[in-house]
UniProtKB/TrEMBL annotation:
It comes from Hymenobacter humi. Residues 187-204 have a biased composition (Low complexity). Residues 1-17 have a biased composition (Polar residues). Residues 40-166 form the Solute-binding protein family domain. Residues 1-30, 181-204 are annotated as: Disordered. This is ABC transporter substrate-binding protein. InterPro entries: SBP_5_dom (IPR000914).
Amino acid sequence: MALTNWQSGKKTDTSAFAANHGGGPTNCAPRQRCCRRGPSRLDFVIIPDAATATLALRRGDVDVFPQVPAREFARLRASPAASSALNFYSAASYDVVTAGFNTRRPALADSLTRRALSQCFDAAGLLKATQMGGGQRTVGIISPTESVIYNDSLALTPFDPQGAAEPATAGRLATKPAVGSRLVPKLPQRQAAAAPAGGALPGR
């Protein structure tokens, strides 16, 4: 595809090279059968707001809405009108959210301190709240679906605030929260939440 128009922050338009539609240079490698019916034109419209993008999809202003936020995706699938007019697709993505500790700080230099803090992170609860139950926990940035390279010998750190407060680990904490304050971590050490990629297409 060749770039034909670019409006910064608004849209980009592309069109297929002539060689892709029977013309142009003869020294181009032949396309595979599954790719022969490619579109002659693709326009990418930048719509930062999910609600506005959903409205544009349902009005027919756009044909595809990729990377739909999980909550909006679930809302559309639950709508009888939307489910009859749109086709919904979801697949595993490479989106990963991790939490790490700066071990140069004295308070986090001790491994048992980091372990105790890790047990305060409710990764499964975060997946349920932010991805509507989609996605899965992983011990690193590699997806568990990549069985050849995923390190399945590492166990997921459990959500166990009570265990984090046991003397064996709590006594190693370099700092403690002030009275009335709470630790509100987001994800456990060496854990990540891989969010699914969702998309929607108008029904045909």
